[in-house]
Amino acid sequence: MRLARIGSLVLCTSVLLTGCPDKQSAGPQDSGIAPAAAPDANLPPEATAFTLRYQLNDAGLEPIAMTVDERPSIESTSVLELRSSRPLRNYRIRLFDEADRAMISDDSVEESADGVVYRITLPNPLKSGHRYTLVADAQTGASFTDDLGRELEDLRFEFQVAGEKEKPAPPPAKKKRR
C-alpha cells in the first residue's frame, strides 16, 4: 500500500513538473516585421489561353502570333504544336486545308495539370502559298471546357505558308484510242 502511494505521488509530481506543452500562438509574432500579404483567394483563375508553334527545320519550335486581325505567314513545316494553359475536357483539334478538308496527320497529345500539348505531325510539309486553319472545338455536344468546367469558345485560327502558291501538277495526258 505504501508503494502505491509513492507511485501516485511520483506520477502527480512528474505531471506538475512537466506541465502541458506550450501552445503556439496563432497570431503573428511581434518582431517588427509585417507579415507577407497572402494572395487574394477571391480572384478568379486566369482564362484558358492557347499558343501555337511550328517546327522550323531542325532549329526547334517557333511561335505563331495568334492575332485576330491578320493571317500570319509561316515557313513550310510538317509539325505544329498547340498548347493550352489549363487542362481541357471534351475537345478535338484538327487542321484543315483551304478547301476545308481535314489534313491527314499523326497526332499525339500530352495532358498534365499544366495543360495540354497537342502535336500534329504531317506526312508531307505544308504547301507554300496555301492557307490552313487550325480548329479546336467540342468532340461531342456544343462546347468543350477547361478543368474548372468553364465553357470555351471554339478556336478557329487561320495562317498561310510563305512563298509562291504551288500549282497542282497537270493531269496525265489521255492516250487516244484508234
Summing up helix and strand content along with how strands pair, one would put the structural category as mainly beta
Shape, principal axes of CA atoms: elongated
Strand order of the largest sheet: 2-1-4-8-7
Uncertain runs with pLDDT below 50, 5 residues or more? 1-18, 23-28
Number of strands: 12
CATH topology descriptor of the domain at 50-161:
Immunoglobulin-like
Biggest beta sheet summary: 5 strands, antiparallel
Q: Enumerate how many helices there are, as a single number.
A: 1
* Rounded average pLDDT: 81
Order of helices and strands: HEEEEEEEEEEEE
For the record, what CATH class of the domain at 50-161 applies? Mainly Beta
CATH architecture of the domain at 50-161: Sandwich
Rg, nearest Å: 33 Å
| Beta-strand residue fraction | 25-35%
Instruction: Calculate the terminal CA-CA distance, rounded to whole Å.
Output: 133 Å
Assign a percent range to the helix content.
under 10%
Structure, briefly:
The protein is mostly beta strands.
What does this protein structure show overall?
- The chain is mainly β and 178 residues long.
- It has a domain at 50-161: Immunoglobulin-like (Sandwich).
- The protein is 10% helix and 34% strand.
- The protein is built from one helix and twelve strands.
- The protein has one helix at residues 2-18; strands spanning 50-55, 61-64, 73-74, 79-84, 88-89, 91-96, 106-112, 115-121, 131-138, 144-146, 151-152, 155-161.
- The strands form three sheets. The chain has a five-stranded antiparallel sheet with strand order 2-1-4-8-7, with no helix packed on it.
- The longest helix is centred in the N-terminal third of the chain and has 17 residues, at 2-18.
- The chain is elongated.
- Mean pLDDT is 81; it is low at 1-18 and 23-28.
- This is Lipoprotein.
